[in-house]
C-alpha cells in the first residue's frame, strides 16, 4: 500500500464508523413514549351490537389491600376517562344503558401504575484516569432515578358469554405512558390515548 | 492413474483462467475503502423510507486475468426511520412513536470484468456480480418496548462502477444493487448503494 493510502485509510474508515451508528436516534420527549395498543376477536360482529354499559368508577389495580375493596382513581380523573369513553362509544352509534338492562356489550376500565427505580454509581474516572487508573479512595458517585409508568386498560365483552365470574373479552385497549408530573399534560395525553384506541379500531361501530 | 485424470480438468480450468496473461503481466491486488449512501427499495423502503447516509465498505480484490478480478466485499449500511404510526403485530394494533433501524452487514464474494476501452486505462469501467450473505439486524422500538432480531440472509448484488486512476491509487465510484432474500420471517430486502471511495494497489 502506498504511503498516501496508509495515511488516508484509517481516517476514512473511522469516519465511516462514526457515520454508521447502530441506532441513530431515540425518544426526545416523554410523550414520544406514549403507546396505544388494541386487540380484538376477529370473529365477533361489532356492528350488530346496539347497547353497552360502563361502570361508574375506574378500578386502580394494586396489591395494597389483597382481598379487600379495590382502590379507585381520583373522582375527577375517573369522570374524565369514563366521559371520554362515553363520547367515543356514542359517536360510533352505540347506546349506553344501565348494567341491569342487559346491555349487548359490557365494558370495564382499570388503571395500573408501576414505579421504576434505577440506581447507578461510578468512581472518579475522569481526565486524570489517562495517567492513573481511577481513584477508588474517593467515594463513588451515586445516583437514583425513578419514573412512573401508568397504564389504562379498557375491556369490552358481550353479554351471555360469561363462564363463572369471567367474561370472554372481544376488545381490549391499553393506553400506556410515563407520568410527567403535570396533571394537565397527562390528562390531555390520556384523552388523546383513549381517542386513538377507538380511531385505530375501525371495526368498531355501527354502519 | 485415475487421480491424475481427475486433476486434468482442474488444471485445464486454472490454465483457462490465468493462461491468457503471463504471471508477470497480472496486475496486483487492490484494497478499496468506500463511503456508501443507500436508497431503500421494496420492503426495505416500507420499513425505513429515508435514504441512508450512513454506510461504509471495504473491498479487496485480486486480478486473475488482466481484465478479470475476484474479491471480497464487506460493508455496513444503516437505515433509520423515526415515525408515529399504527402497526399490526400478531393481531394487535399498536400506535406510538417508533424508532426503526436496519443494520446491514454485507459479506460478499465477487467477480469483476474490466473491458478494455483505452490503452492507458486511466478511466476503467467495470461490471461485476456479488454473491454471499447479508447479516441484517432489524430493530423496532415502540414507546417503552423494543425488539431486535438478527438473521443471515443469502443475497446477490450486481454492480457497475469505474476506477479513475491517479499516480498513487484510484478513485472508485460504483453502484451496487443489493438483494437479500427473506430469512427468519424478515422479508426480501433490497437497496441500491452508491459507493465512492479510494483504492490502493497492494
Report on the structure:
- The complex is a heterodimer of chains A (207) and B (202).
- Chain A is built from three helices and eight strands; from the N terminus they run αββββαββββα.
- Chain A is of the alpha/beta class and 207 residues long.
- Chain A has one domain (28-199): Double Stranded RNA Binding Domain (2-Layer Sandwich), CATH 3.30.160.670.
- In chain A, helix 2 (75-91) runs parallel beside helix 3 (183-199).
- Chain B has 202 residues and is mainly beta.
- Chain B has a single domain (25-201), classed as Beta Barrel (Porin), CATH 2.40.160.20.
- In chain B, strands 1-2-3-4-5-6-7-8 form an eight-stranded antiparallel beta barrel.
- In chain B, a hairpin with a 2-residue loop joins strand 5 (123-142) and strand 6 (145-166).
- The interface between A and B is large, with 38 and 38 residues.
- Strand 1 (35-40) of chain A pairs antiparallel with strand 4 (92-113) of chain B.
Any idea of the CATH topology of chain A? Double Stranded RNA Binding Domain
Mean pLDDT of chain B: 87
CATH top-level class of chain B = Mainly Beta
Supply Rg of chain A. Answer: 26 Å
What is the chains' assembly state?
A: heterodimer
Count of discrete alpha- or pi-helical segments spanning 4 or more residues of chain B: 2
From the N-terminal CA to the C-terminal CA of chain A, the straight-line distance is 73 Å
Q: Which residues of chain B sit in consecutive blocks of at least 5 with pLDDT less than 50?
A: 10-26
Parts with pLDDT < 50 across at least 5 consecutive residues of chain A: none
Which H/E pattern describes the elements of chain A? Answer: HEEEEHEEEEH
User: Which chain pair shows the most residues in contact?
Assistant: A-B, 38 and 38 residues
Overall geometric form of chain A = elongated
Tally the helices of chain A: what do you get? 3
Please give the radius of gyration of chain B in angstroms: 21 Å
Helix content of chain B: 10-25%
Counted beta strands of chain B: 8
Cross-sheet strand order for the largest sheet of chain B = 1-2-3-4-5-6-7-8
- Characterize the main sheet of chain A: 8 strands, mixed
Approximately what portion of the residues of chain B adopt beta-strand conformation? over 45%
**CATH architecture tag of chain B:** Beta Barrel
Percent range for helical residues of chain A?
10-25%
Amino acid at each position: 500500500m502506498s504511503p498516501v493510502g496508509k495515511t488516508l485509510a484509517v481516517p476514512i474508515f473511522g469516519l465511516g464508523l462514526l457515520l454508521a451508528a447502530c441506532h441513530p436516534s431515540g425518544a426526545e420527549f416523554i410523550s414520544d413514549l406514549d403507546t396505544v395498543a388494541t386487540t380484538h376477536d376477529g370473529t365477533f360482529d361489532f356492528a350488530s351490537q346496539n347497547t353497552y354499559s360502563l361502570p361508574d368508577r375506574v378500578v386502580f389495580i394494586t396489591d395494597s389491600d389483597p382481598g379487600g375493596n379495590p382502590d379507585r382513581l381520583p373522582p375527577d380523573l375517573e369522570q374524565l376517562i369514563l366521559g371520554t369513553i362515553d363520547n367515543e362509544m356514542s359517536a360510533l352509534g352505540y347506546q349506553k344503558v344501565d348494567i341491569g338492562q342487559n346491555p349487548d356489550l359490557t365494558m370495564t376500565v382499570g388503571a395500573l401504575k408501576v414505579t421504576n427505580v434505577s440506581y447507578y454509581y461510578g468512581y472518579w474516572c475522569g481526565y486524570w484516569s489517562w495517567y492513573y487508573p481511577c481513584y477508588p479512595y474517593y467515594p463513588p458517585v451515586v445516583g437514583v432515578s425513578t419514573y412512573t409508568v401508568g397504564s389504562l386498560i379498557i375491556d369490552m365483552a358481550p353479554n351471555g358469554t360469561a363462564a363463572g365470574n369471567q367474561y370472554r373479552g372481544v376488545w381490549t385497549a391499553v393506553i400506556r405512558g410515563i407520568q410527567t408530573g403535570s396533571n394537565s399534560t397527562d390528562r390531555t395525553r390520556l384523552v388523546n390515548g383513549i381517542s386513538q384506541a377507538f380511531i385505530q379500531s375501525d371495526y368498531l361501530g355501527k354502519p | 492413474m485415475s487421480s491424475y485424470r481427475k486433476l486434468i480438468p482442474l488444471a485445464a480450468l486454472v490454465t483457462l483462467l490465468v493462461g491468457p496473461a503471463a504471471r508477470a503481466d497480472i496486475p496486483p491486488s487492490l484494497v478499496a475503502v468506500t463511503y456508501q449512501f443507500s436508497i431503500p427499495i421494496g420492503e426495505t423502503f416500507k420499513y425505513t423510507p429515508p435514504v441512508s447516509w450512513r454506510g461504509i465498505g471495504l473491498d479487496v480484490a485480486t486480478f486473475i486475468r488482466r481484465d478479470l478480478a475476484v474479491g471480497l466485499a464487506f460493508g455496513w449500511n444503516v437505515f433509520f426511520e423515526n415515525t408515529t404510526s399504527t402497526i399490526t403485530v400478531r393481531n394487535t394494533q399498536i400506535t406510538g412513536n417508533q424508532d426503526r433501524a436496519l443494520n446491514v452487514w454485507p459479506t460478499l464474494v465477487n467477480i469483476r470484468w474490466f473491458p478494455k476501452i483505452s490503452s492507458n486505462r486511466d478511466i476503467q469501467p467495470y461490471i461485476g456480480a456479488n454473491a454471499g450473505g447479508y447479516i441484517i439486524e432489524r430493530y423496532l422500538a415502540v414507546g417503552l418496548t423494543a425488539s431486535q432480531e438478527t438473521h443471515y440472509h443469502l443475497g446477490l448484488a450486481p454492480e457497475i462502477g469505474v476506477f479513475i486512476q491517479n499516480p498513487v491509487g484510484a478513485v472508485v465510484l460504483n453502484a451496487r444493487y443489493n438483494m437479500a432474500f427473506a430469512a427468519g420471517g424478515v422479508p426480501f430486502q433490497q437497496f441500491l448503494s452508491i459507493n465512492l471511495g479510494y483504492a490502493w494497489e497492494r
